[in-house]
Amino acid sequence: MKKPSVLIAMSGGVDSSVVAGLMKQRGYDVIGVTMQIWQESQTDPRHAGCCSLGAVEDARRVARILDIPHYVMNFRDQFRKAVIDDFIEEYGRGRTPNPCVQCNKKVKFDTLMEKLDELGCDILVTGHYARIRRNPETGFSRLLRSRGGKDQSYVLYMLGDKQLRRVMFPLGELPGKADTRRMAREMGLPVADKPDSQEICFVSEAGGYAEFIKKERPELFSPGEMVDAEGRVVGEHAGVAGFTVGQRKGIGLTARNGRPLFVLELKPSENRVVVGHDEGLMQKEVRLEQMIWHTEQVEPVRVMAKIRYNMDPAPAKLVPGDEPKLVFDQPVRAVTPGQIAVAYRGQSVLAGGVIASL
Question: What share of the chain is helix, strand, coil (3-state, %, to 5)?
């Protein structure tokens, strides 16, 4: 029986390159596609992830070695509107967005799923570390955490049954990233030791996200008051958009009573940054919005949940309704409006949403 044809989302990194090699080894008809969504070439490998010109060239080289068709598609306009403009607007509202989640949601999966039929492919395959479980009785597909040490289900929480039926994540079964790099070397791929991208792909290595936003929207950087939790003025800031909840470095204030200060809250309507000590960052209740459910949940349910990518899931109660929320058993640190919260039941992604402003 002929295997399905697959479209590989090739970012130029080691993960998607190995996936392309694996699918060809397994006898699939493979087509590689790279989405050109950012025009700049980065010299710092931390920023040269899935968007830069250098990454596109790396994907081309891998496709030539594997002898598979490869296309580069220009999605700069979609990326600008769905990711960059949203990123800037969210910071202007005193929130801290996750551009990788927004890119997955609005650009990569939505757009590439549309391209499947155009290119005569059956399945979209990516290098994400996650798993898909299909119920043989109902045919329903559910997103699961990966089996190994690296897990990216958090940034894929929005994928439901309709999309998962036509998606594969081969790396989700691997023990870890070391195995991926080993396979890349065995395949003779030049990206085997390429560093993982660790920064926001469209933010250059000079100045960070604040300078990027300031260049794009200088009006968001109006000087204002820095206050403590009681509203007392303790200093000045150069613009609310340059801060995020939990931030310690770059505040411009010395420690009080020998203890460091952190950003506790952003109030863009008042042009104020609230600072205080670390205990002010701890809270148990997290309000959510823009919820995506993968179950018909009407009653509160016990879950394991995380409010940022690099956090270990912690026990909590997920409360549905008009104002959904997570209530953690123990306080969690730096609940940041605009970030994503994801709830798991066992290994399955149960639901996810955006953390609402205070």
Answer: 30, 30, 40
Question: Does residue 120 surpass a pLDDT of 80?
Answer: yes
Q: For residue 41, what pLDDT is reported?
A: 47
Distances in Å between the Cα of 6 and the Cα atoms of 18, 77, 165, 223, 302 are 14, 26, 13, 52, 38
pLDDT at residue 31 tops 80: yes
The dihedral over CA atoms of 301, 304, 305, 306, expressed in degrees to the nearest 10, equals 180
Q: What is the largest CA-CA distance in the chain?
A: 73
Alpha helices, DSSP H, located in the chain: 14-25, 53-66, 76-79, 85-92, 99-103, 109-118, 161-164, 177-186, 208-216
Per-residue tokens: 193: 């030791």
Q: Nearest CA to 286 among 321, 328, 247?
A: 328
Query: What domains, with CATH codes, occur in the chain?
Result: 5-186 (3.40.50.620), 226-276 (no CATH), 281-355 (2.40.30.10)
Report the alpha-carbon distance of residue 294 to residue 158 in Å, rounded. 9
Return the closest-CA partner of residue 131 out of 143, 116, 141, 148: 143
Q: State what percent of residues in the chain have pLDDT above 70.
A: 94
Answer yes or no: 50 catalytic: no
Give this prediction's pTM.
0.92
* Average of per-residue pLDDT across 210-221: 94
Choose the catalytic residue: 50, 51, 100, 103: 103
Q: How many CB atoms lie within 10 A of CB 7?
A: 26
Q: Please tell me what DSSP assigns to residue 256.
A: B
**Distance (Å, whole) CA 354 – CA 336:** 10
100 is catalytic: no
SS (H, E, C) 147-188: CCCCCCHHHHCCCCHHHHCCEECHHHHCCCHHHHHHHHHHCC
Across the range 117-133, mean pLDDT stands at 95
Structure tokens belonging to residue 330: 């123990």
Euclidean distance between the first and the last CA atom of the chain, given in angstroms as a whole number: 56
